[in-house]
UniProtKB/TrEMBL annotation:
GO terms for cellular component: chloroplast. It comes from Escallonia herrerae. SMART domains: Gln-synt_C. The keyword Metal-binding does not apply. Residues 169-435 form the GS catalytic domain. Homooctamer. One of its GO terms (molecular function) is ATP binding. This is Glutamine synthetase.
Length: 435
């Protein structure tokens, strides 16, 4: 698409009267267009205050798609330099920010990249009188938008003195995952990221009638069809972008509420799980930006009899994956029950609107677990019960949770934290009664 400047109202009327010019625009030469606009510009010379707007005209010939050609241009044969997109988490704890810089040659490891800085006062992360925040490169992914050797760089943020800023949740997570006890257990995570697509101007779910509602839930989950599936191209584009980037994406599906989707990342080990989810979220933000659709990770985007959006986190350790692992899982669940409030407080903003005990959730105030029960806080699969080993699913995290926080907290509670004997005995009694 090329953008051609034309005066607004009067010029539109003239084009309408002479619509034959537009009916076969693709066959017009660039000289014909130039001649047409020269004639019109003479008539409009005296109208220096005329308002202009952009019109788009398709053409298979000439110079129409120059911007698209430049965006797709592969510069690899002409320079060793690459573009690195530095990505970090902003002041809300859920917004992703990024900016680009040129690197002299391709790199293979974050340690080869320089630290950088940004204006923290513009992201809600530093005061104006001392606004410099330093970016530390931590993980590299291939850039599906620019292609070639260009990269996406997941960073965390520090003060100039080298202290992690308050919104840097990766730093503490890295400390937990480097603990020898945690390293020895090789924690695996499989994260199910749900999200909702909204229409741009009205902020109403994609596919829903503006100001109205579709039919009740039921036909939409994993569905096909123009009246049941809304946003599949975005989901598919995101899937391929993740595979290209090197993100360990394992699947996608349409969700229960129309206009809502899910992708899964994992199994990932330790800190890698958070890096991959944050990069996948960034890709999704960029793809919905290009599609003119709004992405929301709100855990309950539509009130009423509609499913919310979660980020279910599947978790296992070396001990739970080996023979006798089911008993280790039960001990982990016991620990999780004793720290239920700590986990809930770290599992996402607005989660109380989602965890109501309805729509495949447990109550936010009550801890529970069960086999194959999606209405529990912690679900254990039938296969895990049958084989006596495997993983557990924490169904409490909201769609807007920080994956660094959730993954690290699960490891800390189940591998590093030890309850008192009295508390352990009491919790075991309560859980036995519920089961």
């Amino acid at each position: 698409m090329a953008q051609i400047l034309a005066p607004s109202v009067q010029w539109q009327m003239r084009i309408t009267k002479n619509s034959s010019y537009l009916t076969d625009a693709s066959s017009m030469s660039s000289k014909m267009w130039s001649s047409l606009f020269r004639k019109q510009s003479k008539k409009l010379t005296a109208r220096s205050s005329a308002k202009y707007r952009l019109l788009a005209v398709k053409s298979e010939h000439g110079t129409i798609n120059r911007m698209e050609d430049l965006l797709n241009l592969d510069v690899t044969p002409y320079t060793d330099k690459i573009i690195a997109e530095y990505i970090w988490i902003g002041g809300t704890g859920i917004d992703v920010r990024s900016k680009s810089r040129t690197i002299s040659k391709p790199v293979e490891h974050p340690s080869e990249l320089p630290k950088w800085n940004y204006d923290g006062s513009s992201t809600g992360q530093a005061p104006g009188e001392d606004s410099e925040v330093i970016l530390y490169p931590q993980a590299i992914f291939k850039d599906p938008f620019r292609g070639g050797n260009n990269i996406l760089v997941i960073c965390d943020a520090y003060t100039p003195a080298g202290e992690p800023i308050p919104t840097n949740k990766r730093h503490k997570a890295a400390q937990i995952f480097s603990d020898p006890k945690v390293v020895a257990e090789v924690p695996w995570y499989g994260i199910e990221q749900e999200y909702t697509l909204l229409q741009t101007d009205v902020k109403w779910p994609l596919g829903w009638p503006v100001g109205g509602y579709p039919g009740p839930q039921g036909p939409y989950y994993c569905a096909a069809g123009a009246d049941k599936s809304f946003g599949r191209d975005i989901s598919d584009a995101h899937y391929k972008a993740c595979l290209y980037a090197g993100i360990n994406i394992s699947g996608t599906n349409g969700e229960v509420m129309p206009g809502q989707w899910e992708f899964q990342v994992g199994p990932s080990v330790g800190i890698e799980a958070g890096d991959h989810i944050w990069c996948a979220r960034y890709l999704l933000e960029r793809i919905t930006e290009q599609a003119g659709v709004v992405l929301t990770l709100d855990p309950k985007p539509i009130e009423g009899d509609w499913n919310g959006a979660g980020c279910h986190t599947n978790y296992s350790t070396k001990s739970t994956r080996e023979e006798g692992g089911f008993e280790v899982i039960k001990k982990a669940i016991l620990n999780l029950s004793l720290r239920h409030k700590e986990h809930i407080s770290a599992y996402g903003e607005g989660n109380e609107r989602r965890l109501t005990g309805k729509h495949e959730t447990a109550s936010i105030n009550t801890f529970s677990w069960g086999v194959a029960n999606r209405g529990c806080s912690i679900r254990v699969g039938r296969d895990t019960e049958k084989e006596g080993k495997g993983y557990l699913e924490d169904r409490r995290p909201a769609s807007n949770m920080d994956p660094y926080v959730v993954t690290a907290l699960l490891a800390e509670t189940t591998l590093l934290w030890e309850p008192t004997l009295e508390a352990e005995a009491l919790a075991a009694q309560k859980l036995a009664m519920k089961v």
